[in-house]
Design a protein that fits this description.
Number of strands: 3
Number of helices: 2
Order of helices and strands: HHEEE
Helix content: 25-40%
Shape: globular
Distance between the termini: 31 Å
Strand order of the largest sheet: 1-2-3
Number of domains: 1
Strand content: 15-25%
Radius of gyration: 14 Å
């Protein structure tokens, strides 16, 4: 999908609410506690579709490093960026 088409899709997708992001963070923490690095896929809190996980590389222009993960729902295309739990692989 080209950049213009992706921008059109992004404009049509309603973002996650803060409650939805909290639910995603809870799923990520629970999976981390269970020791499942690449186990069962996280699920979208709205449509229950599987979430694609993408690493967010650190930026060279920022002096501190945050270990973040970008979650993209493969069904409804909503996205969220979360801090990875400290004990996650």
């Amino acid at each position: 999908m080209d950049t213009a088409a992706r921008a059109n899709v992004d404009a049509m997708v309603e973002p996650y609410s803060s409650d939805d992001v909290a639910a995603l963070a809870a799923q990520l923490r629970e999976r981390s506690r269970a020791g499942e690095a690449a186990g069962e896929a996280l699920r979208c809190p709205l449509c229950r579709g599987p979430l694609d996980e993408r690493a967010v590389p650190p930026r060279a222009d920022v002096s501190y490093v945050r270990d973040r993960i970008w979650l993209v729902c493969t069904a409804c295309a909503r996205t969220a960026v979360l801090d990875r739990p400290h004990n996650a692989p």
